[in-house]
Every structure is written in C-alpha cells, then in structure tokens.
Amino acid sequence: MPVKTVKGTRDIFYPDIEKWKFFEEKAREILKTYNFKEIITPIFEYTEVFARGIGEDTDIVHKEMYTFKDRKGRSITLRPENTASVVRAYLEHKMYAEGGIKRLFYIGPMFRYERPQKGRYRQFFQLGVEVFGSKNPFIDAETIELVINILEKVGLKGLSVNINSLGCEKCRPVYRENLQKFLKGIKEKLCEDCKRRIDTNPLRVLDCKVPSCKEALKDAPNIQQSLCEDCKEHQAKVFHYLETMGVKYEVEPNLVRGLDYYTRTVFEVVSDNLGSQNAILGGGRYDNLVKEFGGPDTPAFGWALGIDRLVLLLEDKNFDFANKTIYIVPAGNSIDYCFQTAKILRENGLASEVMADSKSLKKALNSVNKQRGRFVLIAGESEREKGIVIFKDMENKTQREIKLENIAKELKDEIDK
Ligand code: HAM
After folding, report:
1. Greatest CA separation for the chain
2. Which residue has the CA at smallest separation from atom 2 of ligand 1?
3. What are the boundaries of each domain within the chain?
4. What is the dihedral of CA 10, 13, 15, 20, to 10 degrees?
5. Residue 315 has pLDDT above 90, yes or no
6. What local confidence, expressed as pLDDT, does residue 323 receive?
7. Which residue, of 105, 164, 206, 224, is most buried by count of CB atoms within 10 Å of its CB?
8. Ligand 1 midpoint to CA 224 (Å)
C-alpha cells in the first residue's frame, strides 16, 4: 500500500486549522451560555449500538459503517454518528436519575463509507448537541436557535432552515401506508434504491436526489396533511417560538432525514455556497430512542453540524495570520538581540519569528514575501548599539526606527491600523 492518506480522509492544517479552532472556540463559548456540558464518548462502540439506534434499514447501517471484529470476535463499529453513543452513555451512567433537562454537546470525528467528494469524506467531524428530558416544543425551537446563533456569530450568511414534522406513532403509520400505496403505483419510474425502499423505508424515497425520482414524486401524499392534532399543535408551537426568537424557516414536506429515530420535528440548515453537499447540519426530535434502548421514557432533541463543511464556508482572508506575524532579521552577529526583541513582542501577545537562518537582508525579505508576510524588524549589531530596531512595512513600502522599549506598543498600533 502507498504511504498516503486513505481514500476519503484528509490532513487538516494551516490555514484551515485556524478556521477550525476559531469555530470550535466560538461554539464552545456560546454552548456554555445555553448551559450545555461536553461529553466525550469512545470513537468505537459495539455494532449493536448503531444498528439499533440508527435503524437497520438506513443507508448508514446498511452500507456505510466501518465494522470489524476485535481479537475476541466481538463486532465493533467506528461511530458513523454520535446520537446513539450519547444515548448509550446517558443510560449507562443513569444521567436521567439527576432529573431536570440534560444538555450535552460533543465534538469529534465520525466515519461513514460514502463516495467521497467535496464536503463529503469518510472521516469527518461533527459538533453535535443532545437535549434529554423534555417534550416541550420550546426545546425544539431553542435548540435550533442555538445553532443559528453559532452560525451567525462565526459570520455565515446565505443559510436556510428547512423544517418538517415526521409525526408520531399515531399518525406516521397511516401516512406511511398511504405513501407506500402511492409508491407502488409509480414503482417503475423509481431508481433501484427507491424500489427497494418502498418496502423497507418508504419515507426515504421522498428525499431521493435522482431527478427521475423527484419528478415521479411530484404528486406524492404530503406528510404535513397527515399529522394528528397533537403533532400539529406541537409543530405550531415550534413555529411560534422560532418566530418570536427571530429564526426564519421554510416548511419542507419532503424533508425526512437519513436516520430512523426521529419523531415530530426534523430540520436541516443548508447553504447556497456548498454545491451538492449543501447540508451543514441536521437534526430533530427523537422521543422514543431512549425507551427503545431499554431506558425510561425520555423525550429528546438534537442536531449535528459538519465541521468540514462549515470550514469550507469561512473566508480565507480572515484566517491567514502571516500578515500579522513580525519577522525579525539579524544582521551580523545579532541573533541574541533578535531573540530579546521577539521575547518583548511575545510577552505582549504579538506573533514573531526570528529568521535565524537568513543569509542576507535581501534573502530574508524575499522569504517573508513568499510567506505573504508584511511586517519586518531588522535587529542587527548596529541597531543593538543604539537600542533600536528598524521597522519595515512591506505592503506600504515604508521604513522607520523604533526604540526597543516602544516596539510592543508601536507594532500593536501598526497591526490594528
Ligand atoms: P446527519 O444528517 O447524518 O445527522 O449528519 C449531520 C451533519 O454531518 C450533516 O448535515 C453534514 O454536515 C455532516 N456530515 C454527514 N456526513 C458527512 C460526510 N460524509 N462528510 C462530511 N460531513 C458529513 C446526524 O449525524 C445525527 N446524529 C444528528 C442528530 C443529532 N440528530 C439528533 N441529534
């Protein structure tokens, strides 16, 4: 095998890593203000956790999991998502016993054997939240508002919230049957996957991306019109709260999501700027999953956001710090003086680099240019004698002397200009 990354995986480094950390820090700050606590679960679990949690008939469980036997022959799976793991942890540690509403968040890698393309990888990262213990539609709205708040604070625009309800155990079976009847009538027009889904997972047919399926589904029954009174009331309240919170949304009756655990509210946030992999995040309510795992009846709501996709949307120009770094060039035997200068800058929170290997001023300036740097200090032997450095702004092509004791203040002013 060649020595390179496995198909569908990537190395992440500067400047993307700066965007990544910026996003994570902002998100953590905001999550704290909504009283969310972090949870770290293992990257692999017994396969059963996902097979039961996500649903045997979903694409994820059916064909996208990295599953292997460990040395004792137990079936292990790299997590394709984290909701099932968090539910497992919630039960294993009896978090429900504390009472009240439990708000958890996680950040980490997930693994799905999908066809790689821009924004779709086999190892990708999610930031996700799970809220346990409330049926209240306010929780749906507030948890959606939370992520919109995060996205706005990191400066994203051109986003839409699509929302739908998948009903409950009362109204969904009726809809499912109607839909199945309709699909059987148009079976010949559907792709092979959808033909199979008619029996196994008919709702999934609704969000098939194949154009001929889309066309054939134009007159499919609308789930919005099949909701029972309780589900309708729940949804109306979610909409009311979203409106009072200033969150804009579109009702999208064909939004069904790829995991089986949802009940009532489901939603996705999509971006105009991502091409075909346009969902930055998705989630919804899953009131039965904790019970299905053998726990007490505990309603829940959550979402997960694809960090890889989000990073694609953050603009490069805000994350290239080369133009804020101060490059310090020695002249003669003055590396110690350069270090003394760098130390003052670093103590004041400014980034600097001593160009210890520079052979000449010209070569040093060339190298700074190549790295897209802007600020240079020349700290040579003669500057040391005078207790100064020479400051060069490569962009404005200006140069002046600065007293060593003033460098921190003057360079801060230059960077902030
Ligand atoms: P999901 O829609 O499968 O939901 O994934 C959530 C987000 O993860 C997607 O919107 C996308 O941004 C990102 N994502 C998914 N697959 C890939 C991939 N192959 N490459 C890059 N990014 C990807 C869930 O995972 C649910 N656990 C969400 C949830 C939490 N529902 C309730 N609580």
Report:
1. 91
2. 282
3. 16-171+227-316, 322-416
4. 70
5. no
6. 85
7. 164
8. 24
Looking at residues 217-235, what average pLDDT do you find?
96
In this structure, the residue with its CA closest to atom 8 of ligand 1 is 306
In percent, the amount of the chain with pLDDT more than 70 equals 100
Helical pair 335-347 and 407-416, crossing angle rounded to 10 deg: 60
For residue range 76-129, list pLDDT tens digits in order.
Answer: 999 999 999 999 999 999 999 999 999 999 999 999 999 999 999 999 999 999
CATH class (in words) of the domain with range 16-171+227-316: alpha beta
Ordered DSSP codes for 295-363? S----EEEEEEEHHHHHHHS-GGGG-GGGG-EEEEEESS-HHHHHHHHHHHHHTT--EEE-TT-SSHHH
Kindly report the protein residue whose alpha carbon is nearest to atom 31 of ligand 1: 283
In this structure, which residue's CA is closest to atom 23 in ligand 1? 306
Q: How far apart are CA 269 and CA 275, in angstroms?
A: 14
Residue 272: what pLDDT?
84
Residue 163 and residue 227 in contact, taking contact as beta carbons nearer than 8 Å:
no
Q: CATH assignment of 322-416? A: 3.40.50.800
Atom of ligand 1 nearest to the CA of 119: 21
Residue 227 contacts residue 176 (beta carbons within 8 Å)? no
Distances (CA, A) of 5 to 1, 2, 11, 95: 10, 9, 8, 39
Q: What residues does ligand 1 touch, defined as CB less than 6 Å away?
A: 81, 83, 112, 114, 119-121, 124, 126, 128, 130, 258-259, 279-284, 302-304, 306, 308-309
**What pLDDT, on a 0 to 100 scale, did the predictor assign at position 317?**
66
Do residues 302 and 129 lie in contact, with contact meaning Cβ atoms separated by under 8 Å? yes
Token digits for 206?
A: 């609704």
pTM (predicted TM-score) = 0.92
Structure-token pair, residue 152: 């706005």
**Which run of H or of E encompasses 372?**
none
